[in-house]
Amino acid sequence: MLDNDERRARQEAHWLMKEFGAEAPLYAAMKAEKAIEQRDFGRCARWKRVLEILADNGPADLRRGAAAE
After folding, report:
1. pLDDT for the residue 69
2. Spatial distance between the Cα atoms of 1 and 45, rounded to a whole number of angstroms
């Protein structure tokens, strides 16, 4: 079972892949950078997790994981 933070990160990763395709990691990195600039380290950690999910999983894995939730 996933906690709320992990579930939200997976949902964000799924949405990014759907909306931006191959550019999804770039968008997530920009969001993480903006969070750092605003000193919102919790949000930064979530976006870094999204980046990890995007790097570890292909689009098919993201779709399968989102459907299971």
Report:
1. 47
2. 20
